[in-house]
Amino acid sequence: MAAAPAAAGSGAGRGRRAAATVAAWGGWGGRPRPGNILLQLRQGQLTGRGLVRAVQFTETFLAERDKQSKWSGIPQLLLKLYATSHLHSDFIECQNILKEISPLLSMEAMAFVTEERKLTQETTYPNTYIFDLFGGVDLLVEILMRPTISIRGQKLKISDEMSKDCLSILYNTCVCTEGVTKRLAEKNDFVIFLFTLMTSKKTFLQTATLIEDILGVKKEMIRLDEVPNLSSLVSNFDQQQLANFCRILAVTISEMDTGNDDKHTLLAKNAQQKKSLSLGPSAAEINQAALLSIPGFVERLCKLATRKVSESTGTASFLQELEEWYTWLDNALVLDALMRVANEESEHNQGASEENGLPHTSTRTQLPQSMKIMHEIMYKLEVLYVLCVLLMGRQRNQVHRMIAEFKLIPGLNNLFDKLIWRKHSASALVLHGHNQNCDCSPDITLKIQFLRLLQSFSDHHENKYLLLNNQELNELSAISLKANIPEVEAVLNTDRSLVCDGKRGLLTRLLQVMKKEPAESSFRFWQARAVESFLRGTTSYADQMFLLKRGLLEHILYCIVDSECKSRDVLQSYFDLLGELMKFNVDAFKRFNKYINTDAKFQVFLKQINSSLVDSNMLVRCVTLSLDRFENQVDMKVAEVLSECRLLAYISQVPTQMSFLFRLINIIHVQTLTQENVSCLNTSLVILMLARRKERLPLYLRLLQRMEHSKKYPGFLLNNFHNLLRFWQQHYLHKDKDSTCLENSSCISFSYWKETVSILLNPDRQSPSALVSYIEEPYMDIDRDFTEE
């Protein structure tokens, strides 16, 4: 057991520590070597027994070993820190010792982060490692948490300056020494306590940075409802603090492992959902609810997201924040880049001033505009992310209503040209080890986060029309009137006081930059997803025509055919967008045929489709559905398109449909179904539902059987399809599944989907529409258990 800190200076205490030291090293039969000491300390740290703290050694012993090992006097300083940090101490001497320790660790941490660390002959062990090994981390945790202890009914207090030093040392140790952050994350009471330190402006930034790092490695998500006085804490933050607090919120409101959401199998997701139902709401959902219950929280986020650079923090307070960040290595490289930009612009301005005979203003008093812009970008990144996550959460409708009310969309529209999609300057900020085109660049990350927000905002929600301005809404009404069709109800219900102002709405601005985007741009995927989300839901002719009139279809075809795009992600997003744009729209098919006006172009287009059906199947589905509708219409314009359009003629051929059907079923299996490729299963069902309408379902099943035999694998495809349909029933007939997406995308009632699947799964081998009728008995394998616990 370690001696009590209060006894550190007494003779009895020194005697006990000496005895402990001798006992610890008795096995070596002599004086311990420095390496052996560190080994024993490390073992004690892992087991909690034996040597764990500097207080277990004598000062003389530590000084002697320090001469050999060059520990920078850290163990001796920790020994003094123990002696001066007892409960009845005034902490003045304690703070002086912390001031001595801090620079020993901060310089090392700075070098560590900036990749300039050099192993020298003089220092065998890093200072941060020695500090942790001799119990420094645990001691600082105890010191910081002293205010939680009461003596005679009075809470102990430590100064903000001392807290700041403790936080700085802890953070630097976390940066350089492996395992420290994880150990701190396991101290749940300490993590919760850290939130209370954010009430002081002096310690806010250091506390927030340490919390962010700790939560990043914490196995279990922290619950914000356990933070004392959370509502009061957040409400008292100024806008600058709230923006930084969003960095922490990003970790606390996002479900674990959502980064690869599309890659997780649906089996695993369904199993997790069943488990979650029994456990109740997740920590992330509880945290989202806790934040939304704070008065004015979403409104303040909207103001942060939409404020202009000129409205942001003044120069003096901004410089003060940057100076503080200089000691916080998470943003040290950002600061370094900012200061480089400042120096460049300062030199440029100085040269111009000298030429004009004007006095030069110091960078300290006149902050460069580029630095102000980057400062605002860093803030908006975090705020937009939090808003985006809340938009996708359980309280989506509540968040949607508030975001509309607080005019987030028109505010972002006003920032589009000058901040969000601004042109890169010659001295645009680039983080250390990256380039301007890297996805880690703040400029690029802001654009992607902005596009993700638009996608979440527009997806299956009538508020999507807030992306337009009044003139554009009138255009939608005019399109409906000209086509002699009812005006979309959501357009009529849109509150005109909440829409975008200016000459162009946000959607139109997005289309303009989308068409100018270079072929290799990483933004193409996100741009297409954002525009596609505007079209999702019940198909709207007016929405389609609004985009067609702005040349969107020609742009997509150029990217697919003429630029011969190679990126699978971009191709998938373009095919999905093209499908939504053309579905049931005769004018779109006419435009398609006008652009794809040669057999050579059409063959390139087909090659892109057939290169990956996982990417293109949504387009195949939309064209198949459109063909079915057109064939049942009596209209000269439709008849003309049916006779001329290469794509419709190609899809209308039964061999083409069977080829698609065979491949769609063959490329997926129950164990590999994900949110990304389950569309292949639904597209195959659409083809068979339309065949059923025409009473051709037995024909299609018989042709699939023949194709199986031609591949020399009888039963392999139909058995797989049978298993897929059994899973479909389990997945889509679950009470928490929303079937409207399937109905909206196909204009086929969900009851018809269910009936068709039931008919296909009919166990009666005499039924001409049952899969089992086409699987020969020796090859039957339809009862496989595909559940995943």
UniProtKB/TrEMBL annotation:
Q: Where does the source fall among the domains of life?
A: Eukaryota
Compositionally biased, Polar residues: which spans? 349-364
Q: Does the keyword Cell membrane apply?
A: no
Region Disordered, residue ranges:
345-364
Question: What keywords are assigned to this protein?
Answer: Receptor
Q: Give GO terms: molecular function aspect only.
A: phosphatase binding
Cellular component terms, GO, for this chain's entry? Cul4A-RING E3 ubiquitin ligase complex
Zinc among the record's keywords? no
The record's annotation in InterPro entries points to:
TRPC4AP (IPR022162)
Q: Which Pfam families match?
A: DUF3689 (PF12463)
Q: Name one GO biological process term.
A: ubiquitin-dependent protein catabolic process
Name of the protein this chain belongs to: Short transient receptor potential channel 4-associated protein isoform X2
Q: Which organism is it from?
A: Odobenus rosmarus divergens
Q: Which gene encodes it?
A: TRPC4AP
